[in-house]
Amino acid sequence: MMFRTSGIHHITAFVDDAQKNVDFYAGVLGLRLVKKTINFDAPDVYHLYYGNEQGAPGTIITFFPQKNARRGVIGSGQTGVTVYAVPVGSMSFWKERLASFDIPYENKTRFGEQYIRFFDKGGLLLELVEREGGQSSQWSFNGVTPEHAIKGFGGAVLYSHVPEKTMDVLVSKLGLEQVSEENGLIRLRASGDLGQIIDIQSTGIQRGIGGAGTVHHIAWRAKDYTEHEQIQQELDQTGYNPTPVIDRQYFNAVYFREPGGILFEIATDPPGFARDEPQETMGEKLMLPEWYEPQRAQIEQLLPPIQVREWKGEV
Fold first, then answer.
1. Hey, what domains does the chain have and what are their CATH numbers?
2. Which secondary-structure segment (H or E) carries 171?
3. What is the pTM assigned to this prediction?
4. What is the 3-state secondary structure (H, E, C) of 52-120?
5. Is the Cβ–Cβ distance between 127 and 117 less than 8 Å?
6. Positive or negative, the Cα torsion across 257, 262, 266, 271?
7. 314 pLDDT band (50/70/90 cuts)?
8. What letter does residue 213 receive in the DSSP assignment?
């Protein structure tokens, strides 16, 4: 039976300033900081997760903030645009909100849908689109209420070195289906109602360079551990050289680079972000895996202080 992802699990990006990142994603976009932990491979760097009130798969964007990090260049071999879905009828709210924070945006049209495109203050390219599907977020913060709150991902625009091969992986390995094509874009759809619309830019784009303001990887959902292990084995048997299954505390992960240069991950829905702290207080305390607990004092000294704040000023 072919693996069929329901859509995006999470997207992970690089950024330079941790507090500016918190101010933008919590203060401007109104997302919840659901987990404050560290890069397990570099414990002097935060790993910050933002999403809806539960931190549900399909709503999570994560960041590795590193002060004075080299600025990247968005281009092919990357997830080029991260798209968020907002409730129908809320676009005027978001245009006014971005303007109130002096964040410029431009209007875009793709496959009959209206988007607003803008950069976060770290240089990451984002879009908002109105969508009927997907559960409404119940999180309220800093003037963003459930009526207008970001539901989660609408999808993404992938910039590939070889778009036809990227599309083949999405269709033959991840179970998406092609639904349309226009103006150098190919649209595919996964089976879920969040993070399910993926556009591939099929015309030439300069090659991307990793760094602050770029996406490191895009992760696709696997519903359970069994399905996850099966797709890992399938990828291995068909020559995609996936990593072994890696325990990331809040999900299990398998990584592979598809032929178009984009780093893909398959991530499990379980166990979720409430596994090591109550859902009511998620994101308030620095959470460390047990092997780093003995070094907590040293790690906390290395990390810059950050706070989620009711914030109106310039990012």
1. 8-302 (3.10.180.10)
2. helix 163-172
3. 0.97
4. CCCCCCCCEEEEEECCCCCECECCECEEEEEEEEECCCCHHHHHHHHHHCCCCCEEEEECCEEEEEEEC
5. yes
6. positive
7. low
8. T
